[in-house]
Design goal:
Strand content of chain A: under 5%
Shape of chain A: globular
Number of helices of chain B: 5
Helix content of chain A: over 70%
Distance between the termini of chain B: 64 Å
Largest interface: A-B, 65 and 71 residues
Shape of chain B: flat
Distance between the termini of chain A: 53 Å
Mean pLDDT of chain B: 88
Largest sheet of chain A: 2 strands, antiparallel
Radius of gyration of chain B: 24 Å
Number of helices of chain A: 22
Number of domains of chain A: 1
Helix content of chain B: 55-70%
Oligomer: heterodimer
Structural class of chain B: mainly alpha
Number of domains of chain B: 2
Largest sheet of chain B: none
Structural class of chain A: mainly alpha
Number of strands of chain B: 0
Mean pLDDT of chain A: 82
Order of helices and strands of chain A: HHHHHHHHEEHHHHHHHHHHHHHH
Low-confidence stretches of chain B: none
Number of strands of chain A: 2
Chain lengths: ~500, ~150
């Protein structure tokens, strides 16, 4: 088999002691920095990019890829332990992961996240190896109309995953879309919602928004509910997942992997969208959706597998077409350019050892990530036993510095304080921040593609129905909407939430 | 029956959503909307605000048609203390440096819960300040002002 010969070549490259060392170093540094709240994969890769200038090209890319996985997993760790999503794709992990941690199942949640990520990473890597180049074609078949339809599916999916009122969940998505408009309009240069504040000209950043809505608001709510004493998680029953946990988690991980691999190929919020979609799917297929949000292990396994598969799959368009599908991939392309490599279709034929070395190093990197992190779980879990009177000031400090470090501007810290209050108001009004964040992440893409699709079709809205992929996606969106609005389903849904 | 307020929470939520929608609409008043075929900067904000207003109104309707929690309190102490603490950090960081900004942050933030006694508080301050300087300033090389 050609593929196996290629993978063999790649494994040969990535298992060379030096490359193995770079991979290990990258994963280690990535995990350690990714654990710091506010510093997600993009910031970590950007901060550490200069280190790799001194390495040989293959080593540099392997190390960067390692940093990327490490940071991604590090982000999930803080999401589970202290409910701070380091980046948009770990927002969903916050919900059930943190609920599990409060029930004394932090170790189980962390192990599930690690193992689901490993499974997703390995499968997605094999998919890249077998079908990478043809799959890249999917990204090309997606025009503006298809993107609009896809985002609608994603946004409507976000309504399912919310508890409580459907109307409020839609409202939250719309508020997110509105917040995403802050800044300079790409097409016209018009300043929108900037209030003449120069720091807003580039738009709001995800980190202060997420840190405020989740991190700060969570601290306020915790202190309120316990009258200042602070939460102490239930005693730890067991550190490792039991056989029953495995049985519940693995189908979720498989579904998440499939979703993530497909959605990750598409430019834009691939990993994020797939994590949200996986959560919505798990909640949909679960026999008792009421457990979601209260520590359902599927709510950790599904999104974690999906975001890792999505992150992995985003290498496909980057390597084979030279299209960066997100900010991290843009940085990777930057790094490749510095080493004199031009990503694109010819990379596989001209530099097979580089291409396959990198693909194989993803396998090695994922295994290394688990080997590195499983022993650390005990340490992380112990962190939760720190009394809340000490823990919450520490979280505050890390939130503030992490947010500040984005641009070295205290404006972001002030923004975070504002969103902390807003997050608390939303909680009081029984509105949920997760759909808001999805709207915020997808907003710019939705607007851009909507205007592009309308421009191309000269204002003809039927374009969404006449293009097959877009029509199919819209049918899915309509089906989801019907499911939500059907009275029967809705009654079941409300019963499920009352439990 | 239909005209009795049954969920103050939904009324407040609906009002907030409507206010956001209307102020968004008002702020966007000067931006050109363009046509469907050639959208301008004002098109999408108006579209979103109209939909948002509809959701706000629907939520207010729910306030008189569906039952909700009767009253909802507001925890002044944690919400004010946390917000003031973070703002104090933001104001002090560039002026007095990281070490004192952390002191203000955890000092004021402590009032959100039950403040620590002086000895553990000092230990926490020293630990956090050292840790942050080591990680962010030395480790990651961020240009942070550490002392006044």
């Amino acid at each position: 088999m050609d593929v196996f010969a290629n993978l063999w070549l790649g494994l040969g490259v990535s298992l060379m002691p030096m490359n193995l060392f770079y991979c290990f170093l990258g994963t280690l540094i990535g995990t350690l920095i990714g654990v710091l709240p506010g510093i997600g994969p993009v910031a970590t890769v950007a901060l550490l990019l200069p280190i790799t200038f001194y390495l040989p090209p293959v080593g540099a890319l392997i190390m960067l890829a390692g940093i990327f996985y490490g940071a991604q997993y590090g982000g999930s760790t803080t999401a589970i332990l202290v409910k701070l999503p380091g980046e948009s794709s770990s927002v969903m992990t916050c919900l059930d992961g943190h609920a599990m941690a409060r029930q004394g199942r932090a170790g189980v949640a962390l192990a599930t996240a690690a193992l689901a990520s490993l499974f997703a990473g390995v499968v997605a890597t094999l998919v890249i190896a077998v079908a990478g180049p043809p799959l890249a074609g999917i990204a090309l078949a997606f025009g503006p109309a298809e993107y609009v339809a896809l985002m609608l599916v994603g946004l409507i999916g976000a309504v399912i995953l919310a508890h409580g009122s459907v109307v409020k969940a839609i409202a939250m998505i719309l508020v997110g879309l509105l917040l995403a408009m802050v800044g300079t309009d790409v097409n016209s240069g018009q300043m929108r919602f900037t209030f003449d504040i120069p720091q807003l000209y580039d738009g709001l950043d995800f980190v202060p928004l997420a840190m405020g809505l989740f991190g700060l608001a969570e601290i306020i709510i915790n202190l309120e509910e316990t009258e200042g004493r602070g939460v102490s998680p239930a005693p730890i029953a067991r550190l490792w997942p039991s056989l029953a946990d495995f049985r519940e988690a693995w189908p979720a991980a498989v579904r998440g992997t499939a979703l993530g691999t497909i959605l990750g190929i598409l430019p834009g919020g691939g990993a994020t969208l797939s994590a949200f979609a996986a959560y919505a799917l798990e909640k949909k297929v679960a026999r008792d959706p009421g457990r979601f949000g209260h520590g359902a292990i599927q709510g950790v396994a599904g999104p974690e597998a999906a975001n890792n598969a999505g992150a992995q799959a985003s290498f496909i368009p980057m390597l084979s077409l030279g299209i960066p599908s997100n900010a991290v991939m843009a940085l990777m392309i930057g790094a490749m350019m510095i080493h004199g490599i031009t990503p694109g279709p010819q990379i596989m034929t001209k530099q097979p050892e580089l291409f396959w070395g990198m693909v194989a190093s993803m396998l090695v990197g994922n295994v290394m990530l688990v080997v590195l992190n499983l022993p650390l779980i005990g340490l992380w879990v112990r962190l939760l036993r720190v009394p809340y009177a000490y823990l919450f000031p520490a979280i505050l400090v890390f939130c503030c510095i992490g947010t500040y470090s984005l641009k070295n501007d205290v404006f972001d810290v002030i923004t975070m304080a504002g969103f902390g209050v807003f997050g608390y108001v939303l909680k009081k009004l029984d509105c949920e921040p997760a759909p808001l964040l999805l709207g915020f992440v997808l907003g710019p893409l939705l607007e851009e593609n909507l205007s592009r699709a309308m421009l191309l079709s000269q204002g003809d809205v039927t374009v969404f129905a006449t293009r097959p992929i877009s029509a199919g996606l819209l049918a899915v969106a309509a089906g989801l909407l019907a499911l939500i609005l059907l009275p029967n389903f809705r009654r079941q849904r409300e019963v499920a939430f009352k439990e | 029956m239909a005209h009795r307020l049954r969920s103050p929470q939904d009324l407040a939520g609906g009002l907030l959503i409507s206010v956001i929608a209307l102020s968004g609409f008002w702020l966007a008043r000067g931006w050109e909307a363009g046509t469907l075929a050639a959208m301008q900067a004002g098109f999408f904000p108006r579209l979103v605000c109209v939909l948002l207003l509809a959701m706000g109104l629907a939520t207010m309707v729910r306030a008189v048609t569906a039952d909700g929690p009767v009253a909802f309190g507001w925890a002044w102490r944690p919400s004010v203390a946390i917000t003031v603490a973070v703002l104090a950090f933001a104001v002090l960081l560039d002026r007095l440096g990281l070490v004192l900004a952390i002191l203000a942050l955890i000092g004021i933030g402590g009032f959100a819960g039950r403040p620590l006694r002086p000895a553990p508080f000092t230990a926490l301050w020293a630990g956090l300040a050292t840790g942050c300087v080591a990680i962010f300033s030395w480790g990651l090389g961020l240009p942070l002002q550490i002392w006044p």
